[in-house]
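>> received
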Amino acid sequence: MGGAGAGIIEDKERMSSNVNFEHLFTPLQVGPMRVPNRICETTNTINSSMTPGILDEHFVAHHLAKARGGTGWIGSETWLLHVPFPPQAPDEIGLSIGCAPHGSAYQSPAFVESMARFCEEVHKCGSVAVVQLTHLNSVWAPSPVPVLGVQDYTPHVMGEAEIEFCLNTYAEAAEAAKTAGADGIEIHCAHETLGYSFLSPVTNRRTDHWGGGPTERVRFVVEALKRVRERIGDSMALGIRIAGAEFRDGGYDNLEMREMVYCIAETGLLDFVDIDAGHCYGAPSYVPSSYHPHAEFREFGKAARADLDPKIKVLFTGRINDPVLAEELLKGGYCDLVGMVRAGIADPEFANKAREGRLGEIRRCIACTRCIDEASEPKTVPYTPVCSINPVIGNELRWEKEYRPAQKVKHVVVVGGGIAGCEAARIAAMRGHKVTLLEKGKRVGGQLLIAARAPGRDSFEDQAYFEENALERLKVDVRLNTEADLAAIKALAPDAVVIATGAEPRWPDNVEGVDLPHVAQGWDVMLGKATTGNRVAVVSQEDYYQTPNVAEYLSSRGKQVEVFHKSVHLATDVARYSIGMVLKRMEECGVTVHPNLILKKIESGAIELVSSWGGKNYRFEGFDSVVLVYGAVPVHALYDELQADGSIGEVYLAGAAWLPRRIAEASRHGANIGLVI
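>> returned
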C-alpha cells in the first residue's frame, strides 16, 4: 500500500512482533479461582441482552466473544439488587435511577438457568466467570446527602430494617451465582452504589455504629462480605470494587481509601480488590475518555499492592487498551490483574492476537466512551450495544449467521477512504473480493484524521492505522492522491461500486457576511487550511465534540476563544461519563461559552446573534476571526451520476455520503455493505 504512512505501519508491526509477554499470559490463583491469564473484562453493563429477565443469546454472543478471544476473567454485566421500596412506590422511581425496585433478576429460576448456561460456555473457553453484585441507586443512603452531585434530591435515610434487607440481598444473590456455577463474587462499592455511600465521608454522616471514621465506615461492606462468605464458603473468590479516590469535595482521598481497604482486608474475607478511579459524571470519570492519559491513576493500584497481603490480588482498571501497557503494569508491580473492558469491546480477539505476536492487527479502543455512555442512558428499549470502531458489537449473532466467503469473486471499487469506505473495503476483501480503494487524500482515515488533531484526541488516529494495516494485509489496491470521476470508475470495470465520499462542512443559511475573508470553517482550521487572528469567535450549531475540539485546538495555539452556541450548554449530546471532562477542559483553556444564541450577521470585527428561544438581539465586537462549526452536508454527486448512468449493476452509498452522523454509524454502514456484496 502506498502513501506516507506505509513505512511507519510496517515499523509498528515489526516492533510489535518482538514483544515478550512474561506476565500477561501467566495464570494466577485468586482465592479458590484460577484465572488463566491476567486480562479481565471487569463488569460493565453494556445491556447486551435483548430479552428482559434472562441472559439471552445476544448476551452470550457478546461476552463469550471475549472469552474465545483470550480474555481470562469474564465479569459480564452487573446484577442489580432490589431494595425495600414500600408497596405503593411506582417502578419508575427505581428504573430511573438504575436499581431493581421490587425484585431482582437473580430471584427468577429462568435467570439463574440462563446464567448457568453462560458460565458453562465461559468455562469451555477456559475462562472464569465473576458476578458483580450492585445496589446501584441514589434514593437510598445512610445520610440525607445527595449521592451524586448532579442530582438535586435528597435520598431516603436507611433504617436498621432497611439496611438488614439490603445486606441479605448480597448473600441471596451470591448463593444464586454459586448455584449457576460462577467462579467469583465482586461487591460493587464504588461510585453511586450503596457500598460507596457507606464508605464516603460525604454521604455517610451517621453517628451510630454504621458511621464514624474510615475504620468504622467500612462496617456495612464488611457485613456484606461476611454474609456472602457464609453462603458461598471457600468455593468462590470474593472481592470488592472500590474507587481509588473519591474526587469530590470532602470525599476520601487515596490515603483514606488505603486505610479502609486495609481494614477490610484484615477480616480475612477478601481474595481480590478491583480498583478504578473517578466518578460517573466527572472529571475525572471512572470510564476515562481519550482526554485521560492511559492508566492515569496506576499509582492507586501500586499503593494497594504494597499495602495488602500478597494473597489478596489487586485488579486495576482505567483506560488500558494496549496489551503492551498491560504487561508494563504487571511487570512494574502496579497490579496483579488488568481491567481491559473497552479493549475487548473494540476487539474481542485482542488477547489472542497479542499472545500470537499479531499486535499490528489489534483494533485499539479510541476511548470515545460511546459504548458505555449510551448503555448507561439508552434511548431505545431494547437497547443495541454500539462501538464506534467495531461494527460487529451489538450484532454478533447477525455476523455469525451472515458472514460468509463470497460465492462469486467480484471487483469492488470503493471511492473514499474514510471509515465507511475502509470498512466496506476491508469486509469485502475479507470475504474474498478483489477491492480497489480510491482516496483523494494522502492517507485513509477521513474525518478521523481531523479529530485526531484536537488536543486529547490523538487516539482517533489509531483507527486510521488499523485500517491501513488491515487493507495492506488483505492486499486491497489502495490508490492515494486519486480523484475519482465517472470515467475513472468505469475504466476500472468494476462489478460493484461503493461511494463513500463523505461530507463537507455546512455553511449557514440567511447569515449576512459569511463570505468575508476572516470567516473560516472549523474543519479547515483543524487541517491547517485556514488561519485565524488572535481573538476568535467560534459559532456553533453542533452539539457533540466538534465544537469543543475546534475551540481547544485554537486555544492550544494561543488564541482567545469565545464560543457562541445554539443550545443550553456546550456539547449537550456528550453523555454522562465524558461531559464533565469536556467542560472542564473548556474552563482550563480559558474558553468562554455563550449559550442559546444563533448567528444572524457577520461584520468586520463584530457578530450579531439572536436568542435561540426568543427575539432578543445581541452584538459582540472585537473579533479578528469567525470560525463556523455547523455540522456537515453529504457529498453524493458521484453516486447520483452512477445511478443515472446505470451501466454498473451494484452501486452503494455509504456513511456520511448518505447521512453525516458519527463514527459508529459510518463504520457499521460501510461494514454492512461489505457483508452483502
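>> The first strand starts at residue 28 and ends at 30.
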